[in-house]
Amino acid sequence: LGATYAKLFPKNVRALMLYNLAAGISPDERMARSMTCASFIQDAWNPDVGAFRNFMRYDGSWCEDRGSEDSNGRALWALGRTAEESPLPDIREWAVEQYDVALPTLAEMESPRAIAFAMLGSCAMVRVRTDHTRSLRFLERGADLLERLCVPLARPEPPIQCLQDRRLVQVAEAGPLGGVDPDSRPEGGGSPPCPP
Fold first, then answer.
1. Pairing, β 56-57 against β 45-46
2. Helix 69-85 vs helix 112-128: angle between axes, to the nearest 10 degrees?
């Protein structure tokens, strides 16, 4: 099983956002499930490289030192939304602390999709703390970058990737059950193999 792994990080990130809002579960169940997701996200943080890891083997070891920019952008999104929406004070406090640790090193992401995800988390953080300077700076940088990418360059329509990113932000703002799974699987299912 050493080479076999589970792509659990994205599921834990989205599940945490779901447990923030889920109706019909007891406070004890919400706490237990939120703690499971938060523990996984916390363990995914790699302080040596200042990024979240994404792939974990079944034996509990990580497949890489740094996850994709998309997975890191989703982590910031979940942390911001959790800081804003979790009914559990301890989970909210943890989310703010982890967000504050992660944002400075992740603020230089270049992937438009990752930036859009992280901007959703930064918007949530600004709703929690209106004077959150790092979030405000990141939102300004992200908006400038996405705007530059979406400005038509001698074409009547924006590039396809820009249109996909706009749709992603629209759906993501609809909430954690917005109907899009940003993790498209390779043909035939499964996931790519772990790096050596």
1. unpaired
2. 20
